[in-house]
Write a structure and sequence with these properties.
This protein has about 290 residues and is an alpha/beta fold. The chain has a domain of about 190 residues: NAD(P)-binding Rossmann-like Domain (Rossmann fold). About 45% of the residues lie in helices and about 20% in strands. It has twelve helices and twelve strands. Helix 1 links the parallel strand 1 and strand 2.
Length: about 290
């Protein structure tokens, strides 16, 4: 049996849809099962609640041998460690007690970075906690997700603008969630792998925000300008939108580390590029443009 957490999220929903026809028994954990698509509800077992709760994961993991694990990173949590490590503690206890064999988790690039990197540091500590349980674990170490651009779709559409605290000419890896989901599905449907490993999710090439805006402008037929914002403005914006002081600072620490080269600690290989083949232009054509037209 496969258990899918965060089944209505961007990655989790794609994982779920892509394993529905696999012939595997599937169970999902959902806070609000009524929000699951109708085509899914009749084909999976649903455990209602949060996968941060001991009673919920104990029920969900009973009889399961594989788990897709994703922590949404609650912006109201007091810190990144609370949002990722503390969130995962009940599940890790359940992994040990209930005999889960394989876990595929959504993680981040940054292993080996010497400074606190906020969300990334919390995520990597969570990976270590999962690995310590004895399960076979694959951490899908994601670069920045292309889907993050969607958060400013209205600004792009209405004002031809995009704001972020990264130098416009800095080239960094970026990947599409559909590629991450595809790798997760491949691993979930393969019972043969063992041990603990990291799978880098780098996208097909490094790309700068200036290059991204040029591509977006071309795809949507409207000029879009990149604007560099300060880290102070990023933190203030997050707090204004309801984030805690700790989580807002965690975002600043993560973005500072990315700007200083954290995402380049992993060397790009032919395998890492082929695992995540979607180019930013293709993503804009397939995802951004339709979203802006909806």
């Amino acid at each position: 049996m496969i258990v899918v957490t965060a089944p209505m999220g961007n990655i989790g929903s794609q994982v779920l849809v892509n394993i529905l026809d696999s012939g595997e028994r599937i169970r999902v954990i959902a806070r609000d099962p009524s929000k699951l698509p109708a085509r899914v509800l009749g084909r999976v077992e649903v455990i209602e609640g949060s996968h941060s709760e001991a009673a919920v994961v104990a029920k969900a993991f009973e009889g399961a041998d594989r788990v897709f694990w994703l922590v949404p990173g609650d912006p109201r949590a007091p810190s990144a460690e609370a949002a990722y490590v503390d969130f995962a503690r009940p599940a890790c206890e359940a992994f040990k007690i209930l005999g889960v064999k394989q876990v595929v988790g959504i993680s981040a690039l940054g292993r080996g970075w010497p400074e606190d990197a906020g969300h990334v540091t919390g995520t990597l500590k969570m990976d270590d906690l999962i690995a310590s349980t004895g399960v076979s674990y694959r951490a899908l170490a994601c670069a920045s997700l292309m889907e993050n651009v969607l958060r400013q779709a209205a600004l792009i559409r209405d004002h031809g603008a995009f704001y972020w605290p990264t130098p416009g000419n800095l080239k960094e890896p970026a990947c599409a969630t559909r590629d991450v989901a595809a790798v997760a599905v491949r691993l979930l449907l393969d019972p043969s792998w063992t041990g603990v490993d990291i799978v880098p999710m780098l996208g097909p090439e490094d790309i700068s925000f200036d290059e991204m805006m040029t591509i977006i402008s071309d795809v949507i037929g409207k000029p879009v300008q990149y604007h560099l914002m300060s880290m102070d403005d990023l933190k203030a914006m997050m707090i204004q939108r309801g984030a805690s002081e700790g989580m807002a600072q965690a975002m600043v620490n993560m973005m500072t580390a990315k700007n200083e080269g954290m995402d380049h600690l992993v060397e790009r290989t032919a395998s890492s590029s082929s695992d995540t083949p979607t180019s930013f232009r293709q993503w804009c054509e397939d995802v951004l443009k339709p979203a802006m037209s909806a």
